[in-house]
Amino acid sequence: MNIVIVGLGIIGGSYAKALMKYTDHRVIGINRSSAPLEMALKSGAIHEAGTIHSLETADMVILATYPAAAVKFIQNNGSNIPPNCIVTDAAGIKGSICPELKDLAGKFGFSFVGCHPMAGKEKSGFSASDADLFQKASLIITPCGASEKAVNKVIELSKVLGFGKITISTPREHDRMIAFTSQLPHILASAYVLSPQCPNHKGFSAGSYRDVSRVASINEKLWSELFLENKEMLLSEIDMFMDNMNNIRKAIDKNDKEEIERLLKKSREVKEALGE
Predict the structure, then answer these.
(1) Which of 55, 56, 43, 45 is nearest to 6 (CA)?
(2) pLDDT tens digits for 140-192?
(3) Domains of the chain by range and CATH?
(4) Is 129 exposed, middle or buried (0-12, 13-18, 19+ CB in 10 A)?
(5) Nearest Cα to 211, choosing from 241, 188, 234, 195?
(6) How far, in Å, are 97, 245, 268 from residue 240 at the CA level?
(7) Is 68 exposed, middle or buried (CB count within 10 Å of its CB: 0-12, 13-18, 19+)?
(8) Sign of CA dihedral 107, 159, 23, 121
(9) Which helix (H) or strand (E) holds 104?
(10) How far is it, in rounded angstroms, from Cα 138 to Cα 164?
(11) What's this model's pTM, rounded to 2 decimal places?
(12) What residues contact 257, with CB distance under 8 A and at least 6 apart?
């Protein structure tokens, strides 16, 4: 296939490198700025730097941009995409963009299959991309009305690139779970390192500090967009977390050892029951 990747950051760059390593498809990169394109060409991650006209012969387009930018790109360039093409994305939210991209697919005639690769690093940009980033990673697919044939084609390619567990979901269920499994942990890490004690942690910290603070090295432009696009679901998770924190705080404040033990035992049992 001719596969056009729009956006060569860590995810788009990793798609490009994985495609070059594990498939014989032709990989074309499109990026707003020239530096990532030059890096991708020099490293052999793409066959060519494309233009909007590259879309005209595309069999698949991977939108590896910020969510709003993905919608805008298709609004501006959807007429260049052929009817037999599959367009997919890599956005971390789905409810705010899938309806628009589904409508645009109907307008221009191509198929749209929503995707969210559950993979990444603390660093961003093409320089952080990795051909093996997706090895054994989870992938969430939101079909958004696409045909079974189009969805299966995306699944087949994803398995070749190394993805492990593939989950089919609706946009709303996706956003509800991602608020808990991804967005809330990033908020926790960010709030945690804002403590005035953080700069003094060396010599006093070990695994617990590393585990909690790891994702505080955050791309603030991307994550602020993701948080706001998923506002309803995320606020619900924040409220629930704050309630749980407050229950523990109250027990500590009252020197209620039995209640502290009860709450900690309950959390341990939840975690152990998951077998993780």
Answers:
(1) 55
(2) 999 999 999 999 999 999 999 999 999 999 999 999 999 999 999 999 999 99
(3) 2-169 (3.40.50.720), 174-273 (1.10.3660.10)
(4) buried
(5) 188
(6) 26, 9, 18
(7) middle
(8) positive
(9) helix 98-108
(10) 6
(11) 0.91
(12) none
